[in-house]
Structure formats: C-alpha cells, structure tokens
Design a protein that fits this description.
Blueprint (H helix, E strand, L loop, with lengths): L1 E4 L7 H8 L6 E4 L2 E5 L4 H18 L5 E3 L4 E3 L5 E3 L3 E4 L10 E2 L2 E7 L5 H5 L1 H6 L7 E5 L5 E7 L5 E7 L3 E4 L4 E4 L1 H4 L20
Parallel strand pairs: 5-8, 9-10
Antiparallel strand pairs: 1-3, 2-3, 2-6, 4-7, 5-6, 7-9, 10-11, 11-12, 13-14
C-alpha cells in the first residue's frame, strides 16, 4: 500500500536498497522515487498470514517459494519495486536474487479503501509485464469477496468473482480451497463501521 512520497533525492536501485535498509518503514520504489507504505488493518494482516500458511503448506517440498509483504517484486524490465502482500515464485531465475523476485506466478493483494483503485488499475497493469504471472488475487478484508484475474491458455486475462460458498481455484499453483477457509473467525467490519456493529464469521 503506497502512503506518501518521501523526500530523499532520486536514487538508483542500488542506492534504494542501501537506503531502505536503514529505515524503520518499508518503501516501494518507482523509477527513482520512494514511497512510504502505510500499515494495514488487523484483518489485513490476519488474511495475509492465512494465505502465506495455506500456500507454504501446499507447496512444501517443492521448488516454489512463498513470500510475505517483506519480499519485493521487481516489475520486469523496469526500475520499479513493489511489496505485494503475498507472492509465489516457481521460477529458477528468482533463486539467484537476494533483494527481490521478478517472476512470481501468483500475487495476492489484500484490499483497503485507500489502495483498491491502485491495486485494480495501475498496479495490475505493471504486474502484467511479467510473462510468468498467471493469477492476481484481490481479497476484501471487510466482506467475503475475492476477485481473481487469471491469464488463460490463450494469454487473455479474465476476471472471476468469488463470494461466500465458492471454491477458489488457483491454477498457477494447482490449489483449490473454500473461500471461508481464509475468513473463518474474523470480524468483518466495513471500513468506518464500529466493530460492535459486525459479527464474526462462524467457526
């Protein structure tokens, strides 16, 4: 989630890596400019952790790697580095880098009101530069809803909308799961609504 532009002079990627290592916050990097990332809600964090656990358990023993929001993704053939909430790479080229990955097959972004338009628009357009990306999953943190942008065998991006009772299919990592598996037990509170007005999802 991009919060605000920072004030250091324009940096090269190498200067950015060195500079950010000394900062208390994470920063995304877009062509020389750095942007501080805001914190997320409790549900945002819990949902991200559930995806990481789900993917890591499913992929255990294989060659794929699951990254959390501390793992940068370099947009292919650019000097842009982002921090998606969850990413999975199965590409051998990502085994040789230590500061970032470039070829994830799956990216998950947990939505917030302030960043949803960017996640659906500009950020997705950047991620599509990656020829290996197959699934881009946008996840609500206030209701049982997910939107999956999936690249089919013809190379076309299609949008699949999921709601309560649905089974999510991520062909990029050969995984299917019930949508409630991610939301179980969470208090789903629309942004701006007091928590006492919401009820937890059933166990």
């Amino acid at each position: 989630m991009i919060a605000a532009k920072e004030n250091p002079p324009r940096l090269t990627p190498e200067e950015y890596f060195a500079w950010e290592g000394k900062q208390l916050e994470k920063h995304e990097y877009l062509d020389g400019e750095v942007y501080a990332m805001s914190g997320g809600s409790k549900n945002h964090s819990l949902i991200s952790v559930r995806f990481i656990t789900l993917f890591a358990n499913h992929l255990e023993g294989g060659s794929c790697e699951t990254g959390n929001s501390d793992l940068r993704v370099n947009i292919v053939e650019t000097d842009i580095y982002t921090y998606p909430d969850v990413s999975v790479t199965c590409d051998e080229r990502d085994k040789t880098t230590t500061q970032y990955i470039t070829y994830p097959c799956l990216i998950v972004e947990v939505l917030s009101e302030s960043t949803e338009a960017y996640d659906r628009g500009g950020k997705f357009r950047m991620y599509r530069n990656n020829p290996v990306l197959q699934d881009y999953l946008l996840v609500s943190s206030t209701s049982i809803e997910m939107d999956l942008y999936h690249k089919n065998d013809a190379g076309e991006w299609i949008i699949l909308n999921y709601k309560a009772g649905d089974i999510i299919e991520l062909k990029s990592i050969n995984l299917s799961f019930a949508i409630e598996q991610v939301y179980r037990g969470l208090v789903l509170t629309p942004e701006g609504l007091p928590p006492e007005r919401a009820t937890p999802e059933s166990e």
